[in-house]
Amino acid sequence: MSKLEKIFSAPSILLDKSIDASINFIKSRLIIISVETALHTAKEMNSVVESEIYLYIVHGLLHLMGYDDKTGKLADIMHGEEKRILSDFGFEVNFNT
């Protein structure tokens, strides 16, 4: 099973049981990933494009769950969740720009 399949087959790992309503909301939404942006960013960050794409997926899912990254404090919270989720699946996350 790929890392991506593990992410989508294990919603209880990603989602707290207290927000079950968010699961149905997420199922009815679409996340669009720019592979070109992922390739460019991965090259700039000297990282693997696969990791960048998984980051975009998790980032989109967190937005659908109501997370926001418009201010420093909110971005810190969201990035913390991204890092936690992705590290659970063996990805290293680097937010240094």
Shape: globular
Averaged pLDDT: 77
How much of the residues is beta strand, in percent?
under 5%
Number of helices: 6
Spatial gap, N to C terminus:
32 Å
Main sheet: strands, sense, barrel? none
- Report the count of strand segments: 0
Q: Give the helix/strand class.
A: mainly alpha
Notes on the structure:
With 97 residues, the protein is an all-alpha fold. It has one domain. The protein is built from six helices and no strands. The longest helix is centred in the C-terminal third of the chain and has 17 residues. The chain is globular and about 35 Å long. It starts with a helix and ends in a 9-residue tail after the last helix.
Question: What keywords describe this structure?
Answer:
97 residues, mainly alpha, 6 helices
Indicate the topology.
Layout: H1 3-9, H2 11-14, H3 20-27, H4 35-45, H5 49-64, H6 72-88
Overview in brief:
The protein is 65% helix and 0% strand. The chain has 97 residues and is an all-alpha fold.
